[in-house]
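Reopening this one. Same input as before:
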Amino acid sequence: MGKIILIFMFLYGFINLGAQTVQIVEEEPIKRMMARYIESNKSNGIIRGWRIQIITTNDRRNMESARARFQGLYPGIPITWEHETPYYKVKIGAYRDKITLQPYLQMFKKDFPTAIPIMDNVKKSELIY
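Same output, byte for byte:
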């Protein structure tokens, strides 16, 4: 008899577990701070995202050659380059996360075997989905 009561109490507690509600009470300064944070992020058009770096070289001619070759092979994909002394870096695409980038990376590695994923500041309007 004691086992039946114990089982009944366990099942009753388990069934009532789903009926509980949680109430979150925010203080007013926290609400204002969160509202400012949300507005700030809406107005910011840049996020931390990913790009594919197809070449890093200290020879500007190699960089320009790789950039021209890429534009000829993949004309619709955005491409940028930057000079961080002494290196020239050619970056392509703009991806929200590394998982989205992976199929493109495999495709580009066929023509640019040194291509690697890198984190970069990315405009939201540039993102490739």
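So the earlier flakiness isn't reproducible anymore. For the record, DSSP finds four helices and four strands in the chain.
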